[in-house]
Amino acid sequence: MEITKEQMETARALADAWVRADVDLNEVGKLIAHLRAKADWQKTLELARRLSVSGAVRSNQTVRYYRTIHNECAARIDTKASAETAGQILGWAFRLGRFKKMSVIDKKASRSINRKSSQKARR
Questions:
Q1: pLDDT in tens, 3-52
Q2: CA 26 to CA 32: how far, in whole Å?
């Protein structure tokens, strides 16, 4: 199944939101694995919701990740979407998020290097 323009826009919006919120994308990957195993988008979305309020996760940070993942997915992907459609959107959002995070890291590293270079030049 080929991804539509609208689905790709949804994936981009999810990736942007997750990167802005500094979500650990490994948690998104775990939900994608669950979706593949269960082939049920509603159950996967419900799992994300439960994990966002659960004491079963390892840290408050992880709870925040799942809260953000759940809220963004619930707002952007129809709960009645097929597992295949939701999986495509999540898969692309995951890939785009990884790319965007690397881009942010590269920009921060570049600024740091430039700052250090200019400090050395002033000496």
A1: 999 999 999 999 999 999 999 999 999 999 999 999 999 999 999 999 99
A2: 10
For residue 76, CA distances in Å to 8, 21, 73 come to 12, 16, 5
pTM score, whole prediction: 0.82
What are the extents of the domains in the chain? 5-122
CB-based contact 87:45 (threshold 8 Å): no
Alpha-carbon distance 115 to 27, whole Å? 34
Q: What is the per-residue pLDDT across 99-120, written as a single tens digit (0 to 9) for each?
A: 998 886 666 655 655 665 556 5
Distance (Å, rounded) from C-alpha 77 to C-alpha 73? 5
Residue 33 and residue 12 in contact, taking contact as beta carbons nearer than 8 Å: no
* Burial label, 86 (beta-carbon count in 10 A; 0-12, 13-18, 19+): buried
